[in-house]
């Protein structure tokens, strides 16, 4: 039979007349009764109840003993217990509260009193459950925010260390780069001078040397870019910086027939050094290009980039569908700083993470069903 209220109440009393009267008064609720403590505990193990009305004076196991067992059980200890008693002795009432009861009702029952007490305690229990749920969510939110602040504190410490050594290393990187540039220029001149020499053309050692010098030159460029603190931050339009990057890589993108989709707010700006945000876009796109080159499985090559401005944060989402990544590889992309020990370490790509954290941003990278996804967040 459908009841007016959905709440489930356990009524425990050894007197059939009391049970009959109480159940008549509480006819609009879902009431299940038990005539002894053992039966009550058995019902509690098998059912969910919102409130327990518990008689104090019962044979074998009295209400106090039953209440003590209810409150010592993790499953049932939060269910509110209201004692039913003919006693009005102050010590008996206090004992009930000490055992964990929330109230008591004296017998014989008065309809209005019983109904109001039940209504009040059901509402209180509902409010307590809601508060517990809110508190649990709040604790989780606080935990997440504390973790985020801890991560940002680590970034600040790293940033201060970088500032302390940047001036010296900036000079060193420039001094290294100058002779490397000259060596590359000399090798290119030799390559042009002996281009018609058959022995020279068949000598792969020279070409490999030129390739390695070029690679070293790129590394030094990235290294210098990282420690060059002379440029100031400015309000950079993300779409403009992305377009600038795409223009420089247009030939490679077209040759591979990659479709680039740009979504979101094209007017979003970020206070950052222009070269840093351009470097981020450049290296992400180059990583996708290299991945597309390494697979023949993808015919419809796609890069999706979106910009969002939510509250006080800017979100950049970058995805490709190259389907050429594995979990182990992804973990190595930005694992710091031991990556320098691994083969094929890409300093320029690693600087993506460095520049994001340098500007107090957060980076998350994950493998998707068809490729890879980078989620970047900058707080204003």
From TrEMBL:
Its cofactor is Mg(2+). One of its GO terms (biological process) is chemotaxis. Keywords: Chemotaxis, Coiled coil, Flagellar rotation, Kinase, Phosphoprotein, Transferase. It comes from the Bacteria. Residues 124-155 form a coiled coil. Residues 8-122 form the Response regulatory domain. SMART domains: REC (SM00448). PANTHER family: RESPONSE REGULATORY DOMAIN-CONTAINING PROTEIN, STRESS RESPONSE REGULATOR PROTEIN 1. This is Two-component system sensor histidine kinase/response regulator fusion protein. It comes from Arcobacter defluvii. The lineage of its organism: Bacteria, Pseudomonadati, Campylobacterota, Epsilonproteobacteria, Campylobacterales.
């Amino acid at each position: 039979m459908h009841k007016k209220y959905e709440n489930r109440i356990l009524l425990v009393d050894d007197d059939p007349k009391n049970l009959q009267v109480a159940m008549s008064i509480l006819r609009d609720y879902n009431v299940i009764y038990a005539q002894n403590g053992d039966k009550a505990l058995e019902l509690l193990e098998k059912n969910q109840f919102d409130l327990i009305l518990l008689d104090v004076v019962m044979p074998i196991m009295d209400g106090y003993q039953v209440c003590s067992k209810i409150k010592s059980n993790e499953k049932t200890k939060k269910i509110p217990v209201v004692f039913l008693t003919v006693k009005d002795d102050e010590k008996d009432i206090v004992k009930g509260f000490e055992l964990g009861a929330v109230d008591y009702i004296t017998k014989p029952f008065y309809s209005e009193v019983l109904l109001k007490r039940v209504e009040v305690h059901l509402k209180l229990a509902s409010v307590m459950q809601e508060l517990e749920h809110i508190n649990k969510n709040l604790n989780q939110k606080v935990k997440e925010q504390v973790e985020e602040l801890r991560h940002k504190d680590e970034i600040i410490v790293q940033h201060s260390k970088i500032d302390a050594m940047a001036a010296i290393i900036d000079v060193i990187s420039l001094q290294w780069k100058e002779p490397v540039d000259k060596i590359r220029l000399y090798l290119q001149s030799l390559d042009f001078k002996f281009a018609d020499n058959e022995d020279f053309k068949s000598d792969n050692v020279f070409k490999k040397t030129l390739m390695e010098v070029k690679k070293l030159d790129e590394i030094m460029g990235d290294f210098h870019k990282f420690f060059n603190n002379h440029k100031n931050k400015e309000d950079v339009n993300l779409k403009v910086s992305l377009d600038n990057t795409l223009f420089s890589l247009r030939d490679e993108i077209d040759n591979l027939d990659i479709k680039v989709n740009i979504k979101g707010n094209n007017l979003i700006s970020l206070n950052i050094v222009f070269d840093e945000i351009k470097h981020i876009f450049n290296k992400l796109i180059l990583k996708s290009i290299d991945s597309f080159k390494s697979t023949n499985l993808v015919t419809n090559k796609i890069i999706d980039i979106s910009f969002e401005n939510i509250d006080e944060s800017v979100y950049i989402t970058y995805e490709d569908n190259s389907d050429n990544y594995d979990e182990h590889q992804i973990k190595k992309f930005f694992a710091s700083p031991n990556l320098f020990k691994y083969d094929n370490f890409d300093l320029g790509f690693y600087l993506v993470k460095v520049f994001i954290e340098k500007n107090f941003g957060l980076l998350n990278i994950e493998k998707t069903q068809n490729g890879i996804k980078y989620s970047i967040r900058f707080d204003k």
